[in-house]
């Protein structure tokens, strides 16, 4: 194999004709698929000999390689979101490839002196060949939260989904801010609702292009809904036993938070 294990990370290597496995080509947050699957075969069969690639992990008991983007690529690309039905480990592996590709393509030059960078052999980071400044893959943390009021759940129709999907509230964590502070701030900014009883649920790599979604449940504390018009088209309380609007797809942490909240809503309804 052309890759070597080095403290859990591998360096870009020249692809040899006999290298065989699955191959990940990505542009932005899209991936190349052939009949709905990642291309599989030897480098010689796929015409990849002499290109560069990075070992990402195993896919269906075979190596998965991230291929360095090639000029004039006419391959068919499909949204990464379409793969949310995959098992979580597989989706996260694809997300790793998408995020690393974004990082390497946007950090070819040093942010400190402008010199050319190269990937280090012992980690995913890149280091400037001139001044030695090292940069690590950028991960942008976001909080995402589902809010419950008795047997009701707060759902919002964001401007980017105007007239369509309703989902939870979310936003980026600011510098010098805890996740919990970010939850309170984002909910207040977007709906002027106050919440309490925050509970961490889980997180999800979100390669659009390099976020990490950190999920919480929260209970309503005070306030009336007044949406932030730049961000939110509509926000409402929905009763758990009434028809719900279009929701995020299964596989997203947003859907996981909504379903967990609906269980709590139903429990509250059964008590009354």
Q: Could you give a short account of the major beta sheet?
A: 6 strands, mixed
Radius of gyration: 22 Å
As a percent range, the share of strand residues is 25-35%
Overall body shape: elongated
**Overall pLDDT level:** 94
Give the CATH class of the largest domain.
Answer: Alpha Beta
Annotation field: number of helices: 4
Q: Provide the domain count.
A: 3
Order of helices and strands: EEEEEHEEEHEEEEEEHEEEH
Termini separation comes to 63 Å
- What is CATH's topology name of the largest domain? Nucleoside Triphosphate Pyrophosphohydrolase
Binding site for a divalent metal cation 2: 186
Binding site for a divalent metal cation 1: 170, 190, 231
Protein name: NAD-capped RNA hydrolase NudC
Organism: Aggregatibacter segnis ATCC 33393
Description of the structure:
The protein is α+β, with helices and mostly antiparallel strands and 272 residues long. It has three domains: 13-107, Nucleoside Triphosphate Pyrophosphohydrolase (Alpha-Beta Complex); 108-138, no CATH class; 140-270, Nucleoside Triphosphate Pyrophosphohydrolase, CATH 3.90.79. The protein has four helices and 17 strands. Strands 12, 13, 14, 15, 16 and 17 form a six-stranded mixed β-sheet that branches. Strands 1-6-7-2-5 form a five-stranded mixed β-sheet. A three-stranded antiparallel β-sheet has the order 3-4-8, covered by helices on one side. A hairpin with a 2-residue loop joins strand 12 (140-149) and strand 13. It is elongated. Mean pLDDT is 94; it is low at 1-7. Its cofactor is Zn(2+); Mg(2+); Mn(2+). Residues 137-261 form the Nudix hydrolase domain. Its EC number is 3.6.1.-, 3.6.1.22.
